[in-house]
Amino acid sequence: MSVTEFNLPTRLIFGEGTFARLGDEAAKFGRRAMIVSGQKTMRRLGLLDKAADMLESAGLEVILFDKVEPNPRASTIDQGAAIARGEKIDVVIALGGGSAMDASKGVALASAGDKSIWHYITTRDNPPGKVPSLIMVPTVSASGSEVNSAAVITNWTTHQKSVVSRSSLLPKIAIVDPELTSSLPLAPTLAGGVDIFCHAVEPYITASHPEPLNDGWREAMLRTVVKYLPIVKADLRNREARRALAWASTMACSSFASLGGGDGSMTLHGIEHPLSGLYDIPHGEGLVALLPAWLADLSRERADRICLLGERVFGASDGQKAVEDWLKNIGMRLRLENLGVSKDRFSDLARLAKVSSPWIKNNPTPLEQEDIERIYRMAW
Prior knowledge:
Blueprint: E1 11-14, H1 22-26, E2 32-38, H2 41-44, H3 47-57, E3 61-68, H4 74-86, E4 91-96, H5 98-111, H6 117-122, E5 133-138, E6 150-155, E7 160-165, E8 173-176, H7 186-206, H8 212-234, H9 239-252, H10 267-279, H11 283-314, H12 319-329, H13 346-356, H14 369-379
Parallel strand pairs: 1-8, 2-3, 2-4, 4-5, 5-8
Antiparallel strand pairs: 6-7
C-alpha cells in the first residue's frame, strides 16, 4: 500500500480583509522585500501600490518586479533573480495568480545562486546561498501554489513547460483573502475553477489504491467547485462563492489533499503543459479542452472511479457525461480547435509532454507518443 507523509509548514492566514496584514507579516522575515507580480492587472486594480504602501509602513524597503507573463518564462524569472540577488532581498512576495506565485518561487531560488532557473529545473542542484523567504498572496482561485513547494516554468526557446520543486520553496506564509478574487473577470474565474476541479479529480480517478477518507476530502472539494462555480458565474462578487472557491483552491493542491491515504497522479496536467508551453494559452483553458478526452481514454481502466465521480459529486450515474454537461452549463466546453491549436503540431506536443512531464508514466492507461496524440485528436 502507498505511504503518506504530511508536512504543511506554510502558515495559512485565510479570510476577508487579511491582505491588510501583509506588512506586519513580511517584517518578520527581514527588511528588504521584492513584490513579484503581473505586468498590468495588479497595478490597474491598485493592489500593487497598496501592497507596497503596507510594506513600507512596516519599515521594509520595497523593490517591484511586475514583468511576469502568463505561463512565466525562465528568461523573465532570471531577470527578477538578478535584481533580487543584487538588492540582497530577504523576502519575496507573490501578488497575483499562479503565474506570479510560480515566478516568485523561481526568482527566490535562482537569486540564491548564479545560474539560470532552468539549471535548477533540469538538475537536482541547489543554489549555494540562502533562498529568500516566500510569502504568497493569491488573487485568483486556481493553482493552489500558495501552499506547496512547486513552480511551473516555461522555457520559451524549447517550449518545455516543466516543474521545479525544492523544500526551500515552501512559502513561509500564505495570505488568502477571498476579497482579492472578486475583481477577477469571468473567463479566468471559470478557467481557474476548472483548474481546481482537475487538481482534485486527477488523483481521484488515477488512484491505484484509493482510500475512503481521502476520497471524501477530494469529493468535498469537487462538490464545492461544481456547486459554487455556476453561482460565481451568475454573480462575480458573490462573497460566499468566492470564499468557497478560495478554500477549495488552497486545499486541492496542498499536502492536505493526500490525507487519508490513497495515491494518484496529475497526468492530465502533464499532457496539458505542452499546450500552454507551445501556444501560450491559459493553462485552465487547456485543461478544459482536454478533460473530457482524458476521462474517455481512462474509461478503459477506471470506469468504476468515473462512475463513483458521477454518483458522489454530481448525483448522476454517468460521470463522464456529468462532467461534460457541467462544463457546458458554465460555458466552458472548449475544444483545442477553439484555442488555436493546429492538428499538425500534435506530434510535437506529445513529444514535449513526455520530455516535460515524466510523471505521466503513472497514468493507468499508457501514455506513449501515439496515445497522447490520440487524446489531442479526441480533444480537437
